[in-house]
From TrEMBL:
One Gene Ontology molecular-function label: iron-sulfur cluster binding
Family: To ferredoxins from P.putida and C.tartarivorum, ferredoxin I from A.vinelandii, ferredoxin II from D.desulfuricans.
Organism from which the protein derives: Oscillochloris trichoides DG-6
Protein's name in the database: Ferredoxin-like protein
Pfam family, one: Fer4_ETF_QO
Lineage per the UniProt record: Bacteria, Bacillati, Chloroflexota, Chloroflexia, Chloroflexales
Top-level taxon of the source organism: Bacteria
PROSITE patterns to which the protein is assigned, alphabetical: 4FE4S_FER_1, 4FE4S_FER_2
Keyword Protein biosynthesis: no
Function: Could be a 3Fe-4S cluster-containing protein.
Cited InterPro entries: 4Fe4S_Fe-S-bd, 4Fe4S_Fe_S_CS, ETF-QO/FixX_C, Fd_FixX
Length: 116
């Protein structure tokens, strides 16, 4: 069954059948188990050209990042709180205008996941 997109939504919604097969994961439970080694001297995620963002109608970066690294200020400028990045990689493919410069954090920095 094909679901209709909501107004302003740029991606196809998941069908209820597919959603039912996904594990129940609460992102907040996962985030509190992560240890961050923040590099205060180097932002590994940056906007390449802010003028490009002004032409981006749907601004999906405000939705696809699981930890809201991307926010818009009062003027609509996209801000990047790279310190909270959990390195999921979504912004490498999610920006329709390829306007996110994504790199891995420098050695010794980034997130460390604990499992179990
Ligand atoms: S999706 Fe890409 S181009 Fe659009 S607002 Fe976000 S960073 Fe800018
Ligand atoms: S890699 Fe994932 S967590 Fe990090 S900024 Fe991109 S979308 Fe957000």
């Amino acid at each position: 069954m094909k679901l209709k997109k909501k107004k302003g939504q740029s991606h196809e919604p998941l069908s209820p059948e597919l959603r039912a097969t996904l594990p129940k994961v609460n992102i907040n439970d996962l985030v509190v188990s992560i240890k961050y080694y923040v590099d205060e001297d180097f932002a590994h995620i940056q906007i390449r050209d802010h003028s490009v963002c002004t032409r981006c109608a749907t601004k999906p970066c405000l939705d696809f990042c699981p930890v809201q690294v991307f926010t818009a200020d009062a003027q609509g400028k996209i801000m990047v709180g790279y310190q909270a990045c959990v390195e999921c990689g979504s912004c490498r493919i999610g920006c329709p205008l390829k306007n996110v410069d994504w790199q891995l954090p420098r050695g010794g920095h980034g997130v460390a996941y604990k499992f179990g």
